[in-house]
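Incident log, structure service

09:12 report received: a user says their structure output differs between two submissions of the same chain.
09:20 pulled the input from the user's history:
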Amino acid sequence: MSEVTNVDEDVVRRVEGGVAWLVLNRPDAGNAMTAAMRNQMSEWLEEASADLAVRVVVITANGEKAFCTGADLRGGRAAPLPRPEGAPANAVGDGARTIRNGWQRLVGAILDCEKPVIAGVNGTAAGGGMHLALACDLVVAAEEARFIEVFVRRGIAPDAGGAWLLTRLVGIQKAKELFFLGDDVSAREAHGLGLVNRVVARSELNSTLEELSSRLAKAPTKAIWVAKWLANRALDVDRATAFNDEAIAQELVTHTEDSTEGMMSFVERREPTFHGW
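09:34 re-ran on a clean worker, output below:
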């Protein structure tokens, strides 16, 4: 069963074999995201948590040059709400709200998604596009892919959760270097830094994504969700909280049907068949 949804064909969604593929489709624009694309991606990721037909999400892009080069700065902004007479065009709080409801919402939707999310980085991932990839649970990159903290080149601060994500992945000193200098990072270097799980030939990217997502789509989905939740919280809480989270999570997962199936298959010496609940 396959379902295809388009948003002006700039981003395409299809669900097949338990895998929701979200594909950026603006290769001529570096797969830069408009506000409409970003908001639609956020909605699809948020919906994926409750959709039992979706067990894995893959985010990738069409074209060979770019995975995502961040926000489409030429795409304009949504029309503001009517303002009282005499009110400023930009009130205190407007900018921060735009950031929270924009790229931060998208990155948060990936981190909070109850399904594993895989990034298939086919080309350049710059700015928000780099953070889009780093927010994913697993990152597979083509050999030609590059990762760029491009913000310093534009004279702006990192956004899209970049400081939170990058420092946890590479440490504070390396994160500062990448932010301060804005140098290109090759796929191989990104792999060495721990930003990427696998580097493959571009011709093998889609098949690798299919193999990996298919494997996860047959796994115990709730157990993976809980492992993701525990791992994402681990660096933000103290040991007592982490241990308490683990104890509660263990109890919750043992009451799933997949947990029962896993135990029974072990006793019966057969391969388990997980359904995702």
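09:41 both user submissions now match this output. Likely a transient worker issue. Closing.
09:42 reviewer note: The radius of gyration is 20 Å. The first strand starts at residue 2 and ends at 7.
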